[in-house]
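Example with several molecule types.
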Amino acid sequence: MRLALSPDQEMMREEAARILAERSSSSAVRRVIDAGASRDDAIWNALSRELGWCGVAIPERHGGLGLGLFDLALLLEETGRRLLCAPFFATAGCAAPLLAHAASDEAQARWLPRIAAGECAATVAWPASGSLVNDILLTAERAGGEYVISGVVDQVLDVRNADIILAPARFDGEIGLFTLERSAGLHLQSHRTLDATRNIGRLHADRAPASRVDDPARLAHGATRAADWSKLLLAAEQVGGAQACLDLTLAYIAERVQFGRAIASFQAVKHRCAKLAIEIETARSLVWGAASGVDQGADDWEASLDVAGALVAATEIYNLAAEEAIQLHGGVGFTWEYDPHLYFKRAQASAAWFGAPETHLERVAQHLFDEHEHA
Amino acid sequence: MPERAVPDETTALRAEVVNWMRAHLVGDFAPLRHRGHAGDGDALPELRKRWERELASGGWTCVGWPREHGGRGLSITEQVAFQEEYARAGGPGRMGHIGEGLIGPTLIAYGTESQKARFLPRILGGEDFWCQGYSEPGAGSDLAALRTRATRDPATGDWLVSGQKIWTSLAHVSDWIFALARCEEGSVGRKGLIFLMLPLRQPGVTIHPIRQMGGGEEFNSVFFDNARASAEDVVGEPGEGWSIAMALLGFERGVSTLGQQMVFAEELQLIIDIARENGAAHAPVIRQRIARAWIGLRALRFSALRVLGADGSAPLGREALGYKYQWSNWHRDLGRLAMDVLGGDANIISDDPRRARLQQLFLFSRADTIYGGTNEIQLNIIAEQGLGMPREPRGSLT
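Resulting structure tokens for the full complex:
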């Protein structure tokens, strides 16, 4: 195994970076924040409909490009760098992998082509920091030939931007996966959040009509695999964010003069930036290694531990890089006008998804000490 | 944890290495298993030299050298496979490493035909062992401050070398040294240096082992008092030694690091085993530190695969510049973790080889962040070459 980008991957990454630098610039992100919108329709339409980014990892038979997790992770790294305000992670990083791993053939054929074509934004109503398998908060019942769902999930990513919501729910002593669309029984309410670049809202279902989409034979295993995809892609996004923090800091300290020198020339400052660079590359190595393990058919448990490692490293370095960006900017780092706080808040908000680092570390420890079966 | 074995183009080679090691690292050589790695580098030197000749008889020295120079011409991927299987089989630290990995490739690239003919076969055969004479008491991180002098003997054209080298690994059990010296009177910095090869067994050379904080003696001081280097044993042009020395460092692109990581993995497994036995595994903080160590080792593996995966002709990326800092600090932290898992026993010297190994790890890993470029120098290099930050101002004291 070698970990290097192919020429195609290099090209895709450069193209993504160029488009996002143009269309998801700091001022574009700030316009979305000021409007309280959390979604930039123009760029969302461009990347989902025109560029087909949501379909990168969707199989070709469902209208996607059929590429792997690694390729999708490269895109998420770039969207994370630019604080993209759009339901890309929710749609391509959470909902699509869950459909692809756990839904029936029929449901896949119904939804994946629409997601790939950019006609449908989607999300998953899983608990903010819990497990898709163990912490199910919704209940389904049969109503006529269809289903209705009730219950509350307090924090759902991009809930106001999603056309469909994938909802795991308890049904008849089991767990099923359902789709919810806008209906009279579905009440969605956005939270006001410190991180204003990504929508999070409360889902309250009161006998909301739903369709069952899971393939029961695939659900338990598929949901775990899909959760690994989402964790890895969140980690990729965080690595991109950390990289942006370092890059904007390097640009600022190269210009800022004190004591007659650019402050970037002080060794105390250089060493801190160098350490950040090492830690960012370390997290990027873990993201790339875990993603390529998944693509190359690594054992599930090994892939899962590598994903956990990537998520821990990315979460920690993103928060550290954002903290260092504020500190190394000095006084202006604390202002609304400069960008470090946007990353600081996104880093903090992202740290809470899929469980705290200690949870993932404990899972790794259990495997190292052989304390339970390899899932 | 076991590594997944995915069949690839190295599968047959791996099997060949496994079988050869199983058949040969036995009998007289059995005591060498897992010996001679960092911190244990002075172990069993004569037996390890014999082992090098055993390796040579199987064609397992210099596997990355081109075939025309007697190597196997293995690709980077195949070299990694060899290193991994060698380490996994408990293969001892390689006495021939400096010859095989540093001076050999330098001669292949820059040596004269006569130098290649005289030196390469003896490196391949495990007959000559080499050490590296760069650092001096006054020239550590600032290597270009070196003062060892080389003057030309007008009668023979040979070079007469005087001065002192330090931290010279395995000089006391080596045959040859390659050294940087100042050949132009009054020159400073990187100019006026010469890259010379000298036999160590000659009247002008005195070697004093340096006892390390772990008790071992892997490094030496090497004193030259009109030691003689033959006129034909200059590599490159006199005065251009710096560029040869720097090119030599570039030959170690990290192929051996994946083998080194196998040793790291054994150390981590030992810590896990002891934590399970003595109950340290119940403490959440220890569990998390062990989990972090495992994740860090995976990161080292993936980082090495990125470095090796990059096109060899391209300038080193940030991930390559940071790799030395990454592994050495990981390893140093592992040493600390080992002691915290051992608890009170960490301080007690006993016959338990596992404990002794972890104590050596703890002590020797303090050197990892110093030799081969200190942490501080690594961070300067990353900041300046990787991030384009301003260079450190040079002082005026010489």
